[in-house]
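Q: what sequence does this backbone want?
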């Protein structure tokens, strides 16, 4: 390849990288997360709480069935019998993490920590789906197979990618973190 083409290639794509590296990818990762998962998690969290005050601050029976299904089963599906420590605390934390963490990721506040929390949340959610709700093999899927539509393996890998990027590189300067000086270097 002639050196002028190599130079032009490097100049074009190097310039593009320099012009966008401090903001575009972090913003794109947060927008991709928002478009695919923000309302997914908020709607899921809404199924776990009651309506109105104070019920909106109290996880309902459905929260226990979704978050700790094996424990609720041991108590004949009566969530009121499930011990507050540790299971009630787990349900409370899981329910409100599902509200708070996605919003923090999208607005870019404490982005690295919120993204790391979402990675942990997705890992726990995956474990509960597979072992607690006993997902079947088709739903679980398999990585590196020719079928790309499993609800767990394939989707969750794609869910994790923008979060991993945000943990490692940060949200960029187009974020609340960026406004407060906690840009992609923090």
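A:
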């Amino acid at each position: 390849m002639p050196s002028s083409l190599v130079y032009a290639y490097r100049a074009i794509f190097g310039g593009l990288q320099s012009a966008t590296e401090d903001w575009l990818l972090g913003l794109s990762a947060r927008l991709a997360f928002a478009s695919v998962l923000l309302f997914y998690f908020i709607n899921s969290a809404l199924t776990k709480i009651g309506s109105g005050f104070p019920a909106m601050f109290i996880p309902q029976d459905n929260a226990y069935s979704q978050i700790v299904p094996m424990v609720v089963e041991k108590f004949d599906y009566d969530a009121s019998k499930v011990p507050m420590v540790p299971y009630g605390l787990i349900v409370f934390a899981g329910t409100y993490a599902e509200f708070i963490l996605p919003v923090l990721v999208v607005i870019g506040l404490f982005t690295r920590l919120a993204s790391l929390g979402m990675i942990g949340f997705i890992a726990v959610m995956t474990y509960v789906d597979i072992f607690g709700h006993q997902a079947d093999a088709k739903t679980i899927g398999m990585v590196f197979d020719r079928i790309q539509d499993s609800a767990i393996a394939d989707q969750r890998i794609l869910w994790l990618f923008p979060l991993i990027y945000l943990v490692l590189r940060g949200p960029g300067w187009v974020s609340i973190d960026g406004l407060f000086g906690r840009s992609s270097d923090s």
